[in-house]
Amino acid sequence: MTQRRVLSRFGSAILLFCVLQVEGANDGVIIKRFLSYNTKQVGQKLRVVNLKYNRCGPESDPGRLDELEITSTPSGDVLVTLSASTDVDLEPPVQVTVEVYKRLFRSWVRIPCLNNVIGSCVHNDVCQHGFEECPFESLRKNSVPCHCPIAKGTYAFSLVEIPVPRIPQAKIVVGDYKAQVVVRTHNTQIACYNGSATVEALSQ
Q1: Structural domain count, the chain
Q2: Mean pLDDT within 54-70
Q3: Enclosing domain of residue 88
Q4: pLDDT band, residue 80 (cuts 50/70/90)
Q5: Residue 44 gets which letter from DSSP?
Q6: What predicted TM-score, i.e. pTM, was given to this entire model?
Q7: What is the Cα–Cα distance from 139 to 9, expressed in whole angstroms?
Q8: CATH code, 79
Q9: Are 42 and 179 in contact (CB under 8 A)?
Q10: DSSP string for residues in 121-188
Q11: What is the pLDDT of residues 166-197, one digit of tens each?
């Protein structure tokens, strides 16, 4: 599984869209390549601000997103804090449907699915892209699963740091975004959430 898909699971799809602008839609780029990306290249780092989200499914949905916070370090890397729970075991296939829109003047423009990785995509089974071992120490310490099946329960981690490369095309990516994420398994809806955020470019 690529680092792009890892980040999308934690709600960082916007950052991965930036990476695609730099590298092109090459789904074969592995996690080590992303983590060793040349952060000294010309360009700017981005940060996510004004993150808001709300439940769009019924209270009976077994999945809940209790907390999601995305902040930036002084150097421009990302810190992710998340707490989520499920009242049922998640067995494959687990389908995730994502719809992403970017504000253009007074209208919202749908971002198409790019290489079946980022944008408005239907991921028919995210379980196919799990890790045997989670790539971040904080996840391992908190027993957060990175592969299916996922047992019912509450999972949380705090301040997982994700390196962010400089983006030459930063001006293209900055702006206001909104998205909807729906999770289903075996034709049963697990969770539905709407979210919005603003992407800003950090000063050089």
Answers
A1: 1
A2: 96
A3: 3-201
A4: very high
A5: B
A6: 0.76
A7: 13
A8: 2.70.220.10
A9: no
A10: -EES-GGGG--SS-SSHHHHHTT--SSS-B-SEEEEEEEEEE----BTTHHHH-EEEEEEEEEEETTE
A11: 888 788 889 999 999 999 999 899 999 999 99
